[in-house]
Amino acid sequence: MDVYLPIANLSVNGLFIVLLGGLTGILSGLFGVGGGFLTTPLLIFYGIPPTVAAASAATQVTGASVSGVLAHSKRKGVDYRMGAVMVGGGVVGALIGAVFFNILEALGQIDVVINILYVVLLGSIGSLMMREALTALRPSKSGETAQPRKRRHHPLVAGLPFRWRFYRSGLYISPLAPLILGTLVGILTMLMGVGGGFLLVPAMLYLLGMSGNVVVGTSLFQILFVTMVTTMTHALTTKAVDIVLAGLLLLGSVLGAQFGTQVAMKARPEVLRLVLAAIVLLVALRMLYGLGVQPDEIYTVSPL
């Protein structure tokens, strides 16, 4: 079933795009990530221009996040106060990212920058997550009892002023920490078309010291609103949002997120982190390979 994408200016297999959306929706419900870190590279591998892939993936992430937030909210897995602070930072970051995006696009370097960002960020975060997951699983194989890790925020976070209480997360920290974190994720969302969950979830756990039972839902809450702003900004400035592509992705992702949430409630967290780390590293390696291989068409022609 071929479908024509007006902004990307090419035809794609509609069923493949729907299945891709379903896969990223499952990841959204499982790990609290928007799934854009996987959607954008796979769309690029499929032949979608990186600018269109990044802008349209951000739209798809919004739909997947709505479904995930509703599911986690039912079991009180969302810290709305923490999420609101990060949303404020994310909106500012998305606007800053829009400026960077337009500058890089004018210089003709946006495609290369998107690919490099994926390799660096996914490679680094995937390696850290893999090491942490393997460390957590090792005691169970040898019959030893794993010592629970004491949950506490990073010393840099502890030194920030103006502390607030975030009751659902069990924290008493400065709102500046989640605000700065949200801003960084907002910039990445604009540039890469990702929800930022692959960066946000580890940071919420190991930098902010949040309780694990609210990390996924709060991450999706932040991602929901930041990707909404990102989508509107892309539509008004870069005009790279392909509504047909985004619609096909949304069709699969909304259903997939519900399934992923159900699995997440039953699976071991250590195993889930190991699986996510493996996926992240595979995508990073594939992006690195693409940067070093000569493309089939060295030159492209685009209208002025």
TrEMBL record:
A GO cellular component entry from the record: plasma membrane
Membrane topology recorded in Swiss-Prot or TrEMBL: Multi-pass membrane protein
Main location: membrane
Transmembrane segments: 12-38, 44-71, 83-104, 110-130, 171-192, 204-228, 240-259, 271-289
Domain of life of the source: Bacteria
InterPro entries in alphabetical order: TM_pro_TauE-like, TSUP/Inactive_protease-like
Subcellular location: Cell membrane; Membrane
Keywords: Cell membrane, Membrane, Transmembrane, Transmembrane helix
Similarity comment text for this entry: Belongs to the 4-toluene sulfonate uptake permease (TSUP) (TC 2.A.102) family.
Protein name, entry field: Probable membrane transporter protein
